[in-house]
Amino acid sequence: MSATQSDTSGLAAGPALDASFFAAPFRHPVGSPIRELFPYLSRPGMISFAGGMPDPALFDGDGLQRAQEKAWKNKSACLQYGPTDGLPMLRAALASVMRARGVQCDESGIMVTSGSQQGLDLLLRVMVEPGDVILVEEPAYPATLQAIRLAQARVVSLAVDDDGLDIDALSARLAQWDRTLPEPKALYTVPTFSNPTGLTMSRARRIALLELAVKHRLLLIEDDPYSELRFSGDAVPSLLALSEEVPGSRDWIVHFSSLSKIVAPGMRIGWMLAPTEIMRRCSIARQTVDLCGPGWPQAVATAYLEDDACAAHLPRIIAAYRAKCDALASGLQAALGEQLTFSTPQGGMFLWGRVASGVDAAEVLKAAIEQGVMFVPGSAFYSDKADRSTVRLSFAMPSVEQIGEGVKRLALAVSQMA
Length: 418
Ligand SMILES: Cc1ncc(COP(=O)(O)O)c(C=O)c1O
Hints:
- The protein has 418 residues and is an alpha/beta fold.
- It is 39% helix and 14% strand.
- Pyridoxal-5'-phosphate binds next to helix 5.
């Protein structure tokens, strides 16, 4: 029965719940701008460059089935409540993944989370008070912007260029911090194959950023779901791995990673590494969120990693994403030329571009949907002052053939803007 209907007891029902009933961050909440595009995806024949989802054709069904059979031999681990920080055997397997990425650690320094998104949520819970300032490279991953807003912190955006975060600008800003704002508490970055730009922060800038973190006592939140998906160029170590080179900097890094983009997002396996005092508090915060993560996918992930199936699977998905990225970049160049400028990413899932200035990408999207192709207008990735001519195209989901057709449709939509 709705709150406005009267009931048979004769008591007048109260008014419908209005915004004031809810906690401040949820009085007028705004959902994810990308998820709002989902209804169009089901249109017959639609080609989508919109989502950031992995290609389901690339899931390692056989490898995961083998892992599942092995995991099931330990039914108790699959079915029982488990430790809040994750199954010890999975933490050990993830520690060895991190050591292979150049990070010194053991399982005691790893907390398993329900996707890396949960790690960010826990961190914000234990760290942020209303009004706190969090620095964010922009354009940025919308779910991070949303999480920071819901934590009632202020986002202060930082400029990026083709080499990632503009460290000189950041350094100058920190040196002459706007005294009307609280000192920034943390800085969020996706330094490798960023979502949305696909770009990577150079090694030199990473070192400079670590030095700034120590100097200004600024917590660096490194979000790293994509770095294994490199298809060209030389690998750049994570901030966490490079912290060995900058004394004291490891104390200022929280690092998130995930199996979502390299194995399967449906497993919801992410993990975090952070200074002990942060980890301890995140673990306590998690006790009230879900007590512990589901044991079953953790046990499957353990078996999968222990059998080196992930390492064997990676070259296959890297080759596939490389082919897709090449198809998109060369197709856009041929079909749109100067009408769309972009840098070709060396890995990840995204290509960031800009249509002619003055053209609103949201209008291009409307025309594109009519042509049967979708993308995400760049404005979704800004906290304020969006560059409305920008677009994010994900090459992960469509096949190479669909990418070719999608580019043709996109070119038709862009030509209608002239
Ligand atoms: C930059 C970034 N961080 C975090 C996530 C969330 O990943 P997970 O599935 O591990 O929660 C995504 C997913 O698209 C992402 O692009």
